[in-house]
Amino acid sequence: MTRRDFLATSAAAGLSVSLHAQEADAETKTLEAALPLIAAVQQHMFPEAGSLPSAKAMDAVTFLKETITHGSYDRDIRRFVIEGAQELDRRTKGKFLTMNHAKKEAALRSYEESRYGSNWLTRIMTLTMEAIFSDPIYGSNIGQKGWKSVGSSGGVPRPKERYIAL
Amino acid sequence: MKHFDAVIVGSGASGGAVAYTLCRAGYRVAVLEKGRLIRREEFSKDELAYCRRDIVTPCLFDEYHLIEEKVGEKWVATPTYESGWSFWNGNIVGGSSNLMSGMLHRMHPDDFRLKSKYGEIEGANVVDWPISYEELEPYYTMAEEVVGISGLAQKHPFAPWRSTPDFPQPPTKENEVVKLFDKSCRALGITPLVTPRAVLSKEKGHRNACYYSNFCGSYGCSSGAKGSSTEALLFPALATGKLTLMSHTYVKSLESTKEQVTSVVVIDTVTGKESRITADIFVLAAQAHESVRLLLNSKNRHHPNGLSNSSGELGKNLLFSAGGSGQGELHRESLKGIGFEALMERGLFVNRSILDWYYIDHWWDGRFKGGSVEFMFEHQNIISRACKNNEEGGKLIWGKALGERVAKRFKESKSIRFEIFNDWLPNDDCFVTVDEAYRDKYGMPVGKLRIAGHPHDLKVGNYLAKKCEAVLEEMGAKNIYSSVSSLPPQNLIAGGCRFGDDPKSSVLNKDCRSHDIPNLYVADASFMPTGGSVAYTWTIYANAFRVADHIVRDLSET
User: Fold this and answer.
1) Cα–Cα 20 to 30 A to B254, which of A138, A146, B61, B206?
2) What DSSP assignment string belongs to B442-511?
């Protein structure tokens, strides 16, 4: 299945496709609105007191925002990240942020039952892994705590600027 | 209009080798490269940038390919901006040679005469090469010296003969795991060999020795140890004062009369300005599928089916490397014979290959051409390793369980991997065309690649995978798996401009000069009628040095 087929399938499942017609600034506003929910999902996946540093401590949501809005990032995936968050918000009737741990777990596992939800959760996990384990120059992996948690470290020389000069 | 003795389209392994030879012979050369120059000092080990984003390849929405695969009984073409399956390989000065792992082998003498040695295979367009290993051997040796290939000459029935006693540099340093590997191989009656590697173990001129960064393949080299076209060939060519290296230069097409190419039409990718460059000789070195595309996109009233296509063979018999890969985990608690701390030492290479199965002649398994196998550590990229195998029963693992799993994987084990290289048999369903309806951002039709492997390739790949899994088992590895499929590795592409003696059945003559247009050469891997059972890179370097000698002879006669 191609990526566009995949997105089409998701639209057939009742998701909004209106984003495709909106301007970039509208997309940015939509992303801003979705970020608290995305941050909560990241924190559920990467909690405090685990073997890895938490998503919150690593400010993984800022990394996610800066990554998906960068010119080098795939625009279809950017839309998918935003729309997937909106869908989770709709499914949880806007209450995900205030749910306790057990209810969040149940909501995410329920979302995971659909291929769309499973793919979205995988994407959020990947973006959070990228945050925690990429070079600290990208703003996360603060104090190399991500690398240290797995007894590893990045290669040398480390980057002096993000994505070099694109 | 600028005029040169020779214009070379592409700055990778083959373009660099031709430029090196021509400039040292005193000729004025222009190398045209679409991408930009990344200097040694600028390369870093930024996993996000080099391995997870398109910083060294074009954005697929701007430039892409159409990939045509068989779904059921139908051929279905999908643009790569839909699939994300990029067929670009390092569009920077020096090309993908900057990013290679550098595990190289010479092709075996029998690979030059596959048809006469092993016979025909139904459904495969196997032919002999018009040259022999003997003709290419001096250039393999030249590549060893100039590019800087370290290694150890060892006797083996399937090791090609060599004209020099040993490699110019000893092998790079090896992890202690080779003790376990070698012992396990011998227990199985297998001969382990040291892999030749285009990485310097000692300083060489302006290039420093390898510093064992732990992050080699997919990254540019920060010491100059890797034998990239940039370090080994283009910088020395620039030092002659004869090379004009034009980065950010997209080549749209070649202009020609019936008898000769007259100019290349280029676009400055920064300003968008179009211009022409003229030369006496034109050399394509843009990687197999892109050189074919350029020739097809250069059709004119003299050559209505594309340049150098009077045979109708242009684009046909596209090759990849068949095979697959696999790996297993060496765990702290079950490690045999070596210390866990030594296994975990960063940066040192495995440097081992097996050629025992290059040709199979077995009372039960039968007689057939096999292939070669490389062993290495799993790529040490941190993000990609952390993202692996994080699901159970089809469900993602997250929370504390995820953290424990990832930390254990990194701290308690190290994975060893194998890669299989066997012949991708040339066949009628693997070729390049262009599709006028699909164009890149410069307005030129994109390459359309129909891709199908021959069933025999899978049989061979699976046979070799089982052999490799047995080696990992003997080593005590856990969770061993392998994957052999008919999907091609997009970083190993050859064919499409077959060389041969007959102008009716080949695109190039044995010197890799167009049968139709005498001042047009193709120096990249597209000349290969069959691909052999090793990675192509050393052969690309060697053949481009050989082609360059012919071009020098041509230029000296004009």
Assistant:
1) B61
2) TSPEEEEEE----HHHHHHHHHHHHHHHHHHHHHT-EEEEEEE-SPPPTT--EESS-B-S-TTT-SB-TT
Identify whether A16 is part of a domain: no
d(CA B355, CA A39): 51
Is B502 within 8 Å of B128 (Cβ atoms)? no
Task: Name the residue in chain B with its Cα closest to that of A70.
Answer: B53
Look up residue A124 and give its amino acid.
I
- Residue B542 three-state SS: helix
Per the CB < 8 Å rule, is B400 touching A154? Answer: no
Q: Say how many CB pairs under 8 Å bridge A and B.
A: 123
Q: Considering chain B, what percentage of its residues have pLDDT values greater than 70?
A: 100
Q: Kindly state whether residue A114 falls inside one of the protein's structural domains.
A: yes
Chain B residues closer than 8 Å to A113 by CB: none
Residue A1: pLDDT band (50, 70, 90) is: very low
Cis, bond preceding B170 (omega within 30 deg of 0):
no
Average pLDDT over residues B37-65: 94
The CA distance from B493 to the nearest CA of chain A, in Å, is 23
Classify domain B169-195+323-423+456-487 by CATH number: 3.30.410
Number of domains making up chain A = 1
Over range A134-154, report the average pLDDT: 97
Tell me the pLDDT band of A166, cut-offs 50, 70 and 90.
low
DSSP B532: T
On whether residue A162 sits in a domain, the answer given is no
**Is any Cβ of chain B less than 8 angstroms from the Cβ of A99?**
no
Residue contact B84–A74, C-beta within 8 A: yes
One-letter amino acid for residue A2 of the chain: T
CB A89 within 8 A of CB A39: no
Mean of the pLDDT values across residues B239-268? 98
Q: What is the ipTM of this complex?
A: 0.93
Angle at B518 between CA B512 and CA B524, to 5 degrees: 25
Q: Is pLDDT at A107 greater than 90 in this prediction?
A: yes
pLDDT band at A12 (very low <50, low <70, confident <90, very high): very low
B1-150+218-321+431-453+492-558 CATH fold = FAD/NAD(P)-binding domain (3.50.50)
Q: Identify the residue whose tokens are 């499942």.
A: A13
CB contact under 8 A, A45 and B399: yes
Distances (CA, A) of B471 to A103, B96, B216: 48, 31, 25
Confidence at residue A10, expressed as pLDDT on a 0 to 100 scale: 40
Query: Which tokens in the block code for residue B433?
Result: 């065309």
By residue range, what is the domain housing residue A81? 24-149
Mean pLDDT value of segment B109-130 = 96
CATH 3.30.410 domain position(s) in chain B: 169-195+323-423+456-487
**Residue-averaged pLDDT of chain B:** 97
Residues of A with CB below 8 A from B215's CB? 154-155
* pLDDT above 70 (res A13): no
Give the per-residue pLDDT at A7.
Answer: 38
- Average pLDDT of A66-75? 90
